[in-house]
Amino acid sequence: MSRREEGQSAVYYGSVAHRRLKPKRHFLRYSLFQLLIDLDELETLDGRLRLLSVGRFNLFSIHEKDFGPDGLGTLKERLLDLADREGIALGPDATIRSMTMPRLLGYAFNPLTVHFCYAADKRLAAILYEVHNTFGERHIYALPVDASAALPITQTCAKAFHVSPFLPMDLAYDFIVHPPKDDFSIAIRDRDRDGLVLTATMAMKRRPLTDRELLRQFIAFPLMTLKVIAGIHYEALRLWLKGLKIFRHPGTAN
């Protein structure tokens, strides 16, 4: 099957690394895979693949309600509406491709989903970084991409959403992104007033989105989504044992 017949959706596999520099050094790395889903191809994918379903249970599944802001409409419609509210006019002919983990046997936890938004002229016009925490909350950083931007795309914003109890709110994020083609990579740098606190990097390679490839990834990562959430709590225990300060959720009363 050619890439044109496959569409733009694909499997990406690789690894994630986190390196904390202060107040204590800490490092972790793990392998994973993700799916790049062209939101215009959801219906086609649901009909073409046996191991991936949209909106219903399967070995792997995509549920639009798992992503984006709350509200009515499809995921694409809600993301376009969010971008418009943030002053990023993409228009109804825009294309959105989302890099994320699917549900595995009905369960998923996505610390980060990256929505790549392409204007009608195929230019990458915005990147929406959707962050989920273990409190069941989500937040989307919607950042425009300048038409003259060169690779890698570099974007910066202030932290506005509580994620790790071992990181304060008074931070800034730098995103350094090579959008998905044959390869995909992203680096996120957390900075405080005195410099770099933590870096998180992801580097991945493209594979075709087929049932054979999905089965191969399932064999390689049979409990991937459970390992992600288990890994978050395990690393939190390690950080606590190192004596790192805990920052309470801003919404928690004293």
Number of H/I helices: 5
Proportion of helical residues: 10-25%
Distance between the termini: 58 Å
Query: What's the overall average pLDDT, rounded?
Result: 90
Number of separate domains: 1
Shape: globular
Kindly report the oligomeric state of this protein: single chain
List the uncertain runs. none
Give the class from helix and strand content and strand pairing: alpha+beta
Strand content: 35-45%
Provide the succession of SSEs: HEEHEEHEEEEEEEEEHH
Strand order of the largest sheet: 9-8-7-5-2-1-13-12-11-10
Per DSSP E runs of 2 or more residues, the count of β-strands stands at 13
Reported for the largest beta sheet, the result is: 10 strands, antiparallel
Q: How many whole angstroms does the radius of gyration measure?
A: 18 Å
Protein name: DUF1365 family protein
InterPro entries: DUF1365 (IPR010775)
Pfam families: DUF1365
Organism: Rhizobium alvei
Describe this structure in words.
By secondary structure, the chain is an alpha+beta fold. It has one domain (3-241). The protein is 20% helix and 39% strand. The strands form two sheets. It has a ten-stranded antiparallel β-sheet with strand order 9-8-7-5-2-1-13-12-11-10. The radius of gyration is 18 Å and the shape is globular. The relative contact order is 0.19.
Produce a short descriptive summary:
The protein is built from 5 helices and 13 strands. The chain has helices spanning 3-6, 42-48, 75-85, 211-220, 224-241, and strands at residues 10-20, 26-38, 52-54, 60-62, 95-100, 103-104, 112-118, 124-132, 138-144, 153-158, 172-178, 183-192, 195-208.
